[in-house]
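PROTOCOL LOG
Step 1. Enter all chains and additional molecules of the complex.
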Amino acid sequence: MPSFRAFASVLLGLSVAPLVLSAFVPGFPYGSEKVRGVNLGGWLVLEPWITPSLFDNTGDTRIVDEWTFGQYQDRNVAEAALQSHWNTWITEADFADIAAAGLNHVRLPIGYWAFEVGPGEPYIQGQLPYLQKAVTWAGKHGLKVIIDLHGAPGSQNGFDNSGERLQSPGWHSNATNVHRTDAIMQTIVSMFASQTNVVPIIAPLNEPAGYDGQAVLTTTAQYWLDSYQTIRNPGGTSEPSNTVQLIHDAFQPLSYWTGFETGPNFYGVAMDTHIYQVFSNAEVAMSPQDHINAACSTSLTGLNVWLIVGEWSPARTDCATYLNGRGVGARYDGSRPGSSRVGSCQGLTGSAKTFSSSYKTFLRQFWEAQVISYEKGGDGWLQWTWKAESADDWSYQAGLANGWIPQDPTDLKYPNICG
Ligand SMILES: *[C@@H]1O[C@H](CO)[C@@H](O)[C@H](O)[C@H]1NC(C)=O
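Step 2. Run joint prediction.
Step 3. Record the structure below.
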């Protein structure tokens, strides 16, 4: 092939790039069909707020993330709890239900420690067979999978959902950490190289903490360029893959990334942005109508790569237990240090049985406003998250069961909510 291309380009006076471009057939028609999906949060990467029982059952309040889950309890106990969790939290039936709900993608977070654990790191392994099963089940039910590296060595953001809850995350400032991440990306790419129809897109790192400053952004940009090569040119040859690279905006305005990974040497790139309205005092103080207005006026323009809203939620408070971390309260009811009380969390999270009909109407309207906005301005969306033990406001499954999420995501009750 390469020699043919060289020959053809001499003969026809063409550059090589258009020939390569014409061969690029991603496993999902990004840009012409909308991504509609859910995240499989809290499965292969633990999150205290998604499964508070796993953490409460330890009886040890020092256990706040997956690192301490392995560190502060008997290894056999921890391993048994994880195995049972991996076996039950998401099963093939979930993939069937997700497909039946008219969705076309799942985003599946995985931590680096599923692939490689360094000396002194207390992580417990065993996730990989479930990752493989998930891809098999997705294929069987016609769903596409975004493999999403959600935790890197040293932690890229210090969030508990990176594996390690830390004040000063250390991924970006330590070249060993970054090299380990590069190697894991190569492993992930080779694991799924022959299944690009089911894994058409890979996200090399979730939410690097770009707000921490230029050093993080510099490391992140270089890592995006390096993982572009790994994902798009896995053989290091002129024969590119069909896999799309999904990079994250690192919490920068989209305009920060204008021109990044564009031009004749780049294609098959998508940008991931995450949109929540609950992680500041000002946002939880917004009225329900303010939340809907903010969703409607979300601007997603300015990039010429595909844009996917890879995380968002119809929640309008941070009331979900442990959402801000195990042992940390909520801004909404003033129980988080540094917040001022907006109101009671009663009836706003937990079981949908406690939700008023007007709150459920709000959830439907807010959900629809976001779907409309993200499909209009972007190439689709994935809600965070498919299920949660006791935070139905965040749960796609609970939304379907209780009527604030339609059985078909295009079947809107409020199609004109954004005017
Ligand atoms: C860098 O990270 C590695 C683990 O990936 C660790 O072993 C090493 O001590 C770190 N180096 C520094 C200077 O912190």
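Step 4. Note key features.
Residues 1-21 have pLDDT under 50 and may be disordered.
The chain is about 35% helix and 10% strand.
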